[in-house]
Write a structure and sequence with these properties.
By secondary structure, this protein is an alpha/beta fold. Helices cover 24% and strands 25% of the residues.
Length: 204
């Protein structure tokens, strides 16, 4: 008898909550957080996601089956760095189940999968691929130092004209740096501010 081996992905966690950031902020969404990342942001708040070997290999059918238990049909693939993996089968299965599929990525690896919305958040620690500047629907730059504002501009000039531009205060420095971001957005209205509203709401 021939056995069919299902494709698996290292799943750190999956949970139903509200999208806290960016354009889709406030929408109910099912998050699929994959383990594995070599970008190395020192301020990362999910460093436990970095080592893929620490997370169980879960079949795509099981991942989607769990997502279907909830009423919303918005799935957000995140990490870690989800583009380290071929996401074709996961995206296909999610679409077949009626989900819109969003992704949050640093753009350091090629995108393999049919994604409906790309949140591109480049990092200084590993260069992004050029393709993301034209394919992404939103650019989200995490602001840790004030100098990051000019770094953000260097990426914004390369984005597709229809892409949305977001500046997001790094959570541990939000209290001190948010006022400067507010002033910057008021002076440069092509930008919007993205807040991690899920943290203010104390939800996942």
């Amino acid at each position: 008898m021939n056995s069919i081996t299902e494709t698996t992905l290292p799943l750190m966690e999956a949970f139903y909550t509200l999208q806290g950031e960016g354009f889709h902020q406030g929408k109910a969404a099912y998050f699929i957080r994959l383990g594995g990342c070599d970008v190395g942001c020192h301020w990362c708040d999910v460093k436990e996601s970095w080592d893929a070997k620490q997370h169980p290999a879960i079949s795509i059918s099981e991942i989607v089956s769990q997502a279907e238990q909830y009423p919303a049909r918005l799935a957000v693939i995140t990490g870690g760095e989800p583009c380290m993996y071929d996401l074709e089968e996961l995206c296909e299965a999610l679409h077949k189940a009626g989900f819109q599929v969003n992704i949050e990525t640093s753009g350091a690896y090629p995108l393999k999968g049919d994604i409906d919305w790309i949140c591109f958040s480049p990092k200084k620690f590993k260069p992004a691929l050029e393709s993301f500047y034209q394919e992404a629907h939103e650019l989200k730059v995490v602001v840790y130092h004030l100098s990051d504002l000019q770094w953000a501009e260097s990426h914004a000039t390369r984005m597709h004209p229809k892409a949305l531009l977001y500046l997001q205060p790094e959570w541990s420095r939000a209290e001190s740096i948010t006022p400067a971001i507010i002033d910057y957005v008021k002076a440069h209205p092509q930008w919007r501010i993205s807040l991690q509203t899920h943290k203010y709401l104390q939800i996942p």
